[in-house]
Every structure is written in C-alpha cells, then in structure tokens.
Write the structure tokens for this entry.
Amino acid sequence: MADLVWFIAVAIGPLMLGAAIAYAMLRQRRLSAREKHEQNDAVRHLYENGRR
C-alpha cells in the first residue's frame, strides 16, 4: 500500500501538475491592442495621481 502511495506522489503527481500548468497557459487570453492601451492609460493614471 505504501508503494502505491509513493508511486502516485512521485510519478502521477508531477504529471498532473504539468497538465494543470499547460491547461492554464493555453486558456490565458492575450490582450487586444485596445485593451493594452487602456491598461497602460490606467497604470499611468495610478502612477501620476497615486494614493495619498
């Protein structure tokens, strides 16, 4: 029984972690040019006005 637990932890665990990371990377959406521009404007606004 202990051998099975170690097999799962050592062999299957990293495979599942790699699959989860690959899935997350494939699901990540790129920003459009308009969204990038809006994001940059918002960041610039935050830096100029800052929290006081």
